[in-house]
Amino acid sequence: MVAGEIEKLFTxxxxxxxxxxxxxxxxxxxxxxxxxTLAVVKGAIEAMVALAGHQMAETDPExxxxxxxxxxxxxxxxxxxxxxxxxxxxxxxxxxxxSTQGANQYRAFRFDPEGGIRAAFxxxxxxxxxxxxxxxxxALAQAAEAMLTWGEGAFAALSPLAEVEGKIILRPxxxxxxxxxxxxxxxxxxxxxxxxxxxxxRAGG
Length: 205
Hints:
The protein has 205 residues and is of the alpha/beta class.
């Protein structure tokens, strides 16, 4: 991928560039799925962390778990989750807005003082589209999207996944980009679009 393509992937709707990676080990917890799906989701996260050369841990000293993934059927369910409104400000109005928009997913990040990702909250409303996806594909896509602060429309036109000989894989250029972003030489967070040039150089763009 060339720098211009990479820059678009990390550009917000308001035109701001933001590329941040996790600044601490990832501790995932998954709600709303059966044991078999839970293993698939956690396996996808483990694979993505290994790809990035990052770390996982048993517990986060500040939050316990810092990557929280919620599966549910209706946005109205979320405000009923105990204490979730303490983690997600204005949870009720947010869910009302997402319901009105017909959204089936939403991600929220929290950041360390250095700008690295401190926590991520992934909300997946299992509508017909998401329910039709194989569990492995859904888990892999969500794990990839939780590793970096992609722009809202980064994968609107093209999935981060590809199918090769009947197997669902992460697109090689996206895998290379995630590895590049976790290069310890690079800053944990960048807000200047020129950062895309450094990512492109390391990702083979």
